[in-house]
Amino acid sequence: MNPQFDKLVGSKRAFFALLLFTFVVMPVMYSAEMITVGQINMIGRYMCFAILALGLDLLWGYVGILSLCQFTFFCLGGYAMGMHLAHHGGPEGIIDGNGWKIPACLFVVYPYDVGESSGDALVPGFWKPFWNLPLTVALGLLIPGLASFVLGYFVFRSRVRGVYFAILTQAIAVASWLVFCRNDVKLCGTNGLVRFDVIAPAESLTTFNPVDAKDKWIESHEGSLDQDLNKDGKLDQLDYSIADVGFSLSSDEVRFGLYLITAACLFGAFLLCRWVVNSRLGRVLLAIRDDESTLCFFGYKPYVYKMFAFSLAGILAGLAGMLYVPQMQIITPSNMEAYRSLLVVVWVAVGGRGTLAGAVLGALVVNLLYNYFTSQHDFYFFSWNPDYWQILLGLMFVLVVLYLPNGLIGLLDKVRGSIGLLLRRNRS
């Protein structure tokens, strides 16, 4: 094995074991009906959280920057994908004066005043690029990356650091939540984006304008199209589907496919982060964490490297959000609430800060525990109430900080070292 690859992934045996389990064992278990598609879907969502945790661990563990607004970037990517899915989200549509199909979730919230012209239902202009799937994916990465870059530029150039940066990012999380809750933002307010039926319809890959897709549908159905004028005569209710060739999100095959895509993205994100931290750039990031002032003395500009790390973490968060929404089939401003970004801190701390693998492990373990302990359980001498989960989560964080500063990864290393020592003693 290439020693550079060993350096890249850490333990090659553990890496390939996890790779084998994810892409071979899990599909075999699913095919044998040993696990349900619902469980597969749950693991896929938790993998999205693992990608999010990777970005925070890159910031907190290797650069010493604690960001408390990572779920904001997560939701920026999630809303991008949600807007795309909403465009293709139902067999019935309201067509505006320009021939654009109004997403069902938009029309429910703004039945008579959507967009630029008062009294006319128009698809907001900023919604239109998200009709196209490749453009949606690009924007889902670009928007959170650009937002984190701009924020990092002003903050890091002003030399805001430490607890002040953490407080600032938490304030941004609260402000973002308040903005997305407003109805006049044209993102459906607190209702969020729902009514997702299909993903990747052919029209979203080949055409940008849904008017063209409508015309193609009419031609394929020999020109049959039922129309009912709205009571004010301004809106047409069209009983047709411009997404009837897409992949249904309720299909077991599609949900399993989303799991595989998410797993591939998780491994890709992990390898990218490992490449970064083991490169010359990674050594500079560690130097920023350990002694930023000395680094400035040698002519480096720490804010440039901080901006890079912050932007990369934002892009990873956006990727996680885009993968999460088709599996959850809903995105709301509640995902931006400040406490959610605090949860990411707990995942990273429990897994092991500054290890990357620990971030992945922590996100998966804590969320699996959440899935178990947020339901009612009756033990021999004790009845577990789901409300106790918050207490357990807080206790877990305190115990890790006090007794396991290196998290679960550090504990596993100690166990492995103890076993190795015992084996060597037995041999001697």
Detail the poorly predicted runs.
Answer: 1-10, 113-119, 221-244
Mean residue pLDDT = 82
Assembly of the depicted chains: single chain
As a whole number of angstroms, the C-alpha radius of gyration is 24 Å
How many angstroms separate the termini? 30 Å
Work out the helix count: 16
Strands, count: 8
Relative helix content: 55-70%
Structural class: mainly alpha
Percent range for β-strand residues: under 5%
Succession of helices and strands = HHHHEEHHHEHHEEEHHHHHEEHH
Overall, the morphology is globular
Strand order of the largest sheet: 2-1-5-4
User: What is the total number of structural domains?
Assistant: 1
The largest sheet is: 4 strands, antiparallel
Give the structure's gist in a few sentences.
The chain is mainly α and 428 residues long. 64% of the residues lie in helices and 5% in strands.
